[in-house]
Amino acid sequence: DRAVERSAARSGGSSSGAALTVGALLDGIPEQLVLGIGLAAGEGVSLALLVAIFMSNLPESIAATADSLDGGKTRRHLLVQWSLVAVVCALATWGGGLIADVASPALTGGIQGFAAGALLVMLIDTMIPEAREKGGERAGLLTVVGFALGAFLSLVV
After folding, report:
1. What is the SS3 assignment for 64-132?
2. pLDDT, position 88
3. pTM above 0.85, yes or no
4. How many CA atoms lie within 13 A of 76 on its CB side?
5. Segment 67-78 mean pLDDT
6. Which DSSP helix (H) or strand (E) runs through 29?
7. Where are the domains of the chain?
8. Neighbours of 21 (CB within 10 A)
9. pLDDT tens, residue by residue, 18-47
10. What does the alpha-carbon distance between residue 157 and residue 154 come to, in Å, rounded to a whole number?
11. pLDDT higher than threshold 80 for residue 52
């Protein structure tokens, strides 16, 4: 957070776009490692997991992109940035597949815990305050609806 804030201060822009991008990487890499482990272990991928990954990554990428555009980043810069994030996450999925044979449940749980922690830090430090500021009182209700949708999908699918 401090490094992102210092960088934003030097460039005269907002740090929230960069913080969300770093958060997407810190959450995305372990998330994709676990996905790769699951695929390689033959467990398959549930529709609920795919929807959860999409639903969590979409708002953070939209918010990061909007903030970065407001901060003066070019569309080209953002296209390259998100392409790099996608490549790094794809490589993490591949890496998860490579370590699937030696990944114990404890290792997989540790990786999932790190991903969950990174997501919580990003939510509390950046996304929730910004959602409240820009979305007003609806932000809390929509967050609960999102969690309810996730719980419903995990039960149904």
Report:
1. HHHHHHHCCCCHHHHHHHHHHHHHHHHHHHHHHHHHCCCCCHHHHHHHHHHHHHHHHHHHHHHHHHHHH
2. 94
3. no
4. 0
5. 86
6. helix 16-40
7. 2-156
8. 24
9. 777 777 788 788 888 888 888 888 877 777
10. 6
11. no
Mean local confidence (pLDDT), 126-143: 83
Q: DSSP label at 42? A: T
- How many angstroms separate the Cα of 12 from the Cα of each of 6, 19, 67, 68, 92? 10, 15, 13, 12, 33
Long-range contacts of the stretch 71-74 (C-beta < 8 A, 24+): 71/8, 71/11, 71/13, 71/14, 71/17, 72/11, 72/12, 72/13, 73/13, 73/17
In Å, how far from its chain's centre is CA 78? 16
CA distance 138 to 8: 29
- How is residue 50 written in tokens? 């795919």
CB-based contacts of 26, cutoff 8 Å, min separation 6: 115, 118, 121, 122
Which residue in the block uniquely carries the two structure tokens 């999925």?
Answer: 93
Q: Tell me which residue has tokens 């007003």.
A: 136
For residue 109, the number of C-alpha atoms closer than 13 Å in the C-beta half-sphere is 3
